[in-house]
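Hello forum,

I keep getting stuck at the same step: I have a sequence, I want structure tokens, and every attempt I make locally crashes halfway through. Rather than fight my setup again tonight, could one of you with a working pipeline run this one for me? It's a single chain of 88 residues.
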Amino acid sequence: LPNAMICILTYTPFLMNQAIVILASLDFLGFGLPLGSPSIGDLITQSKNNVHAPWLGITTFVTMASILSVFTFIGEGIRESFSPKKIN
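Reply #2:
Ran it on my machine without issues. Output:
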């Protein structure tokens, strides 16, 4: 069971990242959350429509990169803490 838990803990952050990217993509295409809901896909759409305001695109990129990195690093830390091959 501990070895199976390591596999699950390794794969879970990537599933969360995938879900966030899919939701942002669907929101960008107009198939996600209802209009007016705050979402990363809506931020991407606003930055595409307002090219003269580069801070919208930069903020969206930094936000998306930060969220995906945080999920990956937290998942890696949890996986490392439950690793049965912990070296002292």
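Helices lie at 2-29, 40-49, 54-81. If your local run keeps crashing, start a new thread with the error log.
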